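Reply to dn_fold:

You asked what the input looked like. This is it:
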Amino acid sequence: MNTRIMLGIAAVAGLLSVADGAATPAAVPAFGSHANGLTEGQKVERLIAYLRSLDGAVFIRNGSEHSNTEAADHLQTKWEKHRDEVHTAVEFIEELASASGLTGEDYTIRFQDGTVRTTRDVLLEELKRLEQQP
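and this is what came back:
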């Protein structure tokens, strides 16, 4: 492949910075890390720990109610089984933690005050909070 084309592809991918015709390596964080220093795997572990901390919340999966501990254990098992296929915390939320793989039905959480939200929305909100921490 032509060197110019290769440099252009690398620049578009964010691997190189091209200024005044000179290509230099771009500042790219280590794979899986974020500006706050957490790897994607650490973010997933923190999301699971967050669910585990929701005492009194009821997790509804395929029509059955589960405790916060049961829900966290279920997602931990799914994470361990699929961690080689899921590379980001968002992928974890979207592909493993939002809906049943068997029925496609959304997982939901009923909080102590009676509010019901999808697990997807709750985890995306918590992920945003995690990523904004210094």
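The longest strand covers residues 16-19.
Hope that clears it up.
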